[in-house]
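From the methods appendix. Each design record in this collection lists the tokenized structure first, followed by the designed amino acid sequence. Records were kept in a plain field format so they could be parsed without special tools. The example shown here is representative of the layout used throughout.

RECORD:
FOLD TOKENS (212 positions):
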């Protein structure tokens, strides 16, 4: 997962299809798509060379949808920097390190409802549902990321929140530059928390949403 420090940031977000709802009898219950633009400067470099990164622009397409069988979250970042950055990847069986000023990063995260899959109601108290959770991470940035995540997701009923869920993953790390060869891999664990909190100030409606 990429962590980006944006001390000076201008953001423009366009909702392409905001929370489009279908009939409950359809497979698709709802979907939301957005396109965002971020521009930041004064980054702290971590690319093992002397050149200071001055600024970069990030274009992000984001999709979320709810289905009769579960849900999907997906995003794709395309980064355009004003200088060259060291990027590593495995190609033709060997590690290659190149200088790029454009690169991408993406995550695809489907979750399957175990209540739907088993035909049993798994809700209990504040717990709405339990889901089989998966994520695929791929990118050119930094170590040439390619990770596979699998685990359990939990959807919660929390007063005031439009949604709140937690995912506990086992992570298989593939093709990482810090391993000796492309066949090496490592394992770790990850907790992801995502939520949306709507509120109003006077006659204006606002929404805080995101994930950690």
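DESIGN:
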């Amino acid at each position: 997962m990429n962590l980006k420090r944006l001390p000076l940031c201008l953001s423009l977000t366009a909702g392409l299809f905001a929370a489009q709802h279908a009939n409950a009898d359809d497979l698709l219950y709802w979907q939301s798509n957005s396109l965002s633009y971020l521009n930041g400067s004064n980054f702290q470099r971590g690319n093992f060379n002397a050149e200071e990164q001055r600024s970069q622009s990030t274009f992000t397409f984001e999709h979320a949808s709810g289905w009769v069988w579960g849900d999907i979250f997906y995003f794709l970042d395309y980064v355009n920097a004003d200088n060259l950055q060291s990027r590593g990847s495995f190609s033709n069986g060997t590690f290659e390190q190149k200088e790029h000023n454009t690169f991408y990063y993406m995550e695809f995260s489907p979750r399957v409802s175990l209540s739907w899959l088993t035909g049993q109601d798994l809700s209990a108290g504040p717990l709405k549902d339990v889901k089989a959770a998966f994520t695929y991470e791929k990118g050119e940035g930094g170590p040439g990321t390619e990770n596979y995540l699998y685990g359990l997701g939990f959807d919660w009923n929390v007063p005031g929140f439009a949604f709140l869920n937690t995912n506990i993953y086992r992570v298989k790390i593939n093709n990482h530059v810090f391993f000796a060869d492309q066949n090496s891999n490592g394992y770790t664990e990850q907790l992801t928390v995502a939520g949306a909190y709507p509120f109003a100030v006077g006659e204006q409606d606002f929404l805080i949403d995101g994930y950690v």
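APPENDIX NOTE: Residues 8-211 form a domain with the Outer membrane phospholipase (ompla); Chain C fold (CATH 2.40.230).
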